[in-house]
Write a sequence for this structure.
């Protein structure tokens, strides 16, 4: 039986074209700055994100970590959402490795952080008791709020607020190309208000490994040194960067197909009485839902029963599930999946 893995777009496999590009990639020592394929990827990424420079890193987590460490000194504070990936799922790296204080404020259901909450979070720089506020982090798309694309207007207003108060703005744009496709705007436009942006090649864009941190030349030089410190200086990394170039050239526009598939899946789920969509799903490539109280299966039992039908999905917090559409979920998967739901839920 074929299995459809809806747990995450991180489960995508590299395309045939990526494997060919990897096999024939021209390489050099990237710690010396001599890998032509990495250099080409970094330049392309910076261009697409509208920033001066790019830095190829192992993961989104490393990109966010380097941005925070480059922007903030020890004891300074980064303000981020309670639903932010950097707060929830990056092992507390900014605090553990950078002594950066995490100050959380609520995410609104639409993924934004209210400017009023940012204002209330600001520290008084004259008060020796308080840490220095240095950075605001936003996430686009906001994963835990439903894969919500943040509007350009909102990002501009948050950046204007941060800059007015002497803070910087980092954008965790792990899925910024999903936001760009959903909003019909170039990623460079969505990233323009931010001082730095990380995006992932290894999610919906299907590359096997890697993310890129983009920002100005000063930031990227700092981040490059920090990357080395963390052991993230890779040598003939062109082998993996080659897949990243294919990802940027060929896999961005097709994200619209994933969004269409998520919409079809959601429409089908809506018609199954025992499934209740949550988080205003779908907004991009993610569908969140809860099961009706009449369903007696535990979460574990439901996940296992769906697995037996060839459908993998993810537990996304108390009583809630997440399904993500991506390149390796073909059109026919939606019908097969809906049939599995009907069978398991009876
Ligand atoms: C919004 C967001 N930011 C950052 C990351 C981290 O990316 P990585 O898994 O490459 O470290 C993820 C991963 O799922 C994510 O969803």
């Amino acid at each position: 039986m074929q299995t459809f893995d809806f747990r995450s777009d991180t489960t995508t496999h590299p395309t045939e074209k990526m494997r060919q590009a990897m096999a024939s990639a021209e390489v050099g020592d990237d710690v010396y700055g001599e890998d032509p394929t990495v250099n080409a990827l970094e330049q392309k990424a910076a261009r697409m994100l509208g920033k001066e420079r790019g830095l190829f890193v192992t993961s989104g987590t490393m990109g966010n970590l380097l941005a925070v460490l480059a922007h903030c000194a020890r004891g300074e504070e980064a303000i981020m959402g309670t639903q932010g990936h950097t707060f929830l799922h990056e092992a507390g790296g900014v605090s553990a490795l950078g002594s950066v204080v995490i100050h959380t404020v609520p995410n609104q259901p639409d993924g934004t952080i209210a400017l009023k909450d940012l204002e209330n979070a600001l520290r008084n720089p004259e008060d020796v008791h308080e840490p220095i506020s240095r950075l605001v982090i936003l996430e686009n798309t906001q994963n835990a709020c439903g894969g919500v694309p943040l509007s350009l207007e909102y990002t501009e207003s948050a950046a204007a607020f941060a800059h007015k108060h002497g803070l910087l703005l980092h954008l965790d744009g792990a899925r910024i190309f999903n936001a760009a496709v959903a909003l019909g705007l170039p990623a460079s436009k969505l990233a323009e208000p931010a001082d730095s942006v990380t995006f992932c090649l290894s999610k919906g864009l299907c590359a096997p490994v890697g993310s890129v941190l983009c920002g100005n030349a000063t930031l990227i030089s700092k981040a490059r040194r920090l990357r080395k410190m963390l052991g993230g200086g890779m040598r003939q990394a062109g082998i993996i960067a080659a897949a990243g170039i294919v990802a940027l050239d060929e896999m961005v526009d097709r994200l619209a197909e994933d969004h269409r598939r998520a919409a079809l899946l959601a429409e089908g789920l809506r018609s199954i009485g025992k499934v209740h969509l949550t988080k205003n799903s779908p907004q991009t490539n993610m569908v969140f839902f809860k099961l009706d109280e009449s369903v007696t299966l535990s979460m574990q039992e439901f996940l296992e029963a769906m697995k037996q039908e060839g459908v993998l999905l993810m537990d996304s917090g108390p009583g809630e599930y997440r399904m993500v559409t991506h390149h390796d979920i073909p059109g026919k998967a939606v019908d097969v999946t809906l049939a599995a739901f009907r069978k398991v839920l009876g």
